[in-house]
Structures are given as structure tokens and as C-alpha cells.
Write a structure and sequence with these properties.
four-stranded mixed beta sheet; 30% helix; single chain
Amino acid sequence: MIELDLRGLKCPLPVLRTRKVLRGLAPGRRLVVACTDPMSAIDIPNLVREEGARLDAQERLGETLRFTICRDGG
């Protein structure tokens, strides 16, 4: 599992950095992304769908949005 801490970054940086890591993620691997930008609640799920990955969990912990993403395929 890879953890990506993007707290404090503003749109579009969280989605751009998530895309870069997600594209290099091996099939079956998980990526956990932590963001504080409110737009990430919309942007990250859309990115996951566009990239053909799977959003396993989305939660809010105070100001932090946390996404658990799995790269499908193999």
C-alpha cells in the first residue's frame, strides 16, 4: 500500500499528483490519499473512474479527506 499525503495542497495539485502515482501503480496495489482541499471530494472519485481504478473507501476525518483506491486489472 502506498500512502500519499497531499494535505495543504489546493486544486488542481491533489488530483494531478494522485493521477501520477495511480498511473504507476501495479495492478492489485492500493493507494491511500489524504487531502484537505474540499474539491478533492469530487475530483478524486472522478479521476479514479477515468483511470479505470476502484474507489474502495472515502472518508472525512476532521478537515482531512481520505481515499482508498485500488488499481484493478492484471
